[in-house]
Amino acid sequence: MPGRGSVPPERLAQVEALQGVLLSRPMTAVVGVRGVPAAALQTMRRELRHRGHPIQVATNTSIRHAIERAAKERPSLTPLLEQVEDQTAILAAEGNPFSLFQELARTRSPTPARGGELAPHDIVVPAGATSFKPGPIVGELQHAGFPAAIEKGKVVLKKETTIVKAGGTISREVAGLLTRLDIFPLEVGLSLRAVVDGETFYPPDVLNVDLDARRADLARAAHQALGLAVEIGYATPATVPILVSKAHRRALGVALAAGYITKETIEPLFAKAMREAAAVGKLTGN
Q1: Rg of the chain over CA atoms, in angstroms?
Q2: For the whole prediction, is pTM greater than 0.85?
Q3: What mean pLDDT, rounded, does the chain reach?
Q4: pLDDT per position as a tens digit, 235-250
Q5: Whose CA is closest to 89, among 214, 222, 206, 189?
């Protein structure tokens, strides 16, 4: 039996293993796993492992000790200590922190509230007809703060209403009615709390970027820049072929207008002459 104050060998081995994980790859992340059912978590871990992003679940004490030990060799890991709270896992991988954020975000899905949770954002109930039949449900909705009424034999919500403000507690009464309205205000899945990539610390608000929108912005900017460069005649590897083609078309147009004979202009000039001769013939009656 280990003595008082000593660390059990299995706990020490776990901390050493976690330390090895933290130092094994350039990108290290702290991941929240609160609320993820065990079966779903196992599936998520298996899928992430196949993508080269294995996650390690451990007690917060073990994770903190591992970060503290790893930070002696890699000080940039130290800010991750502040993110170790609630139910936590760590992930070490190679790649792009922004792509990792999106990958973990895709594991999240809407889930109903049970009551007692804090609203992660304003919970807004839209106006309109509901699936409820007229009856006691109208009073239940009104008592919970929903603007319910009966119109043309249907239970309707008269106006869009913020039923719980962000950070407010979702009551059991409101939670039950939201579920019956098919409004699921919470999410279950993995949440990326922070990433250290090399020496750089990334909080989640920095990583929450719409990559598809940014790619579209870059493509649009590149297209506009190419158009401007061609318009002002600025030569680059991308614009030279376009500028040469543009110059060739203009030179051909000038040559045709001036009647200058080349291998490229002889046929259209001859065709033009034949058309003009035919027109003159019609005018003279020949």
Answers
A1: 34
A2: no
A3: 87
A4: 899 889 998 998 888 8
A5: 189
Amino acid at 255: A
Mean pLDDT of 170-186: 93
Instruction: Give the CA count within 13 Å in the CB-facing half-sphere of 139.
Output: 2
| Helices and strands (H and E) in the chain: how many | 10, 12
Query: Is residue 168 packed enough to be buried (19+ CB in 10 Å), middle (13-18) or exposed (0-12)?
Result: middle
Per DSSP, 91 falls in state E
The single residue listed with the structure tokens 């506009």 is 224
Q: How far is CA 240 from CA 228, 246, 250, 262, in A?
A: 13, 10, 15, 24
The vertex-101 CA angle with 201 and 215, nearest 5°, equals: 100
Give pLDDT tens digits for 15-34. 888 998 888 888 999 998 88
The end-to-end CA distance of the chain, in Å, is: 123
Sorted by where each starts, the structural domains of the chain and their CATH numbers stand as 9-108+189-209 (3.30.70.1730), 123-185 (3.90.105.20), 214-284 (no CATH)
Other beta carbons less than 10 A from residue 90's beta carbon? 24
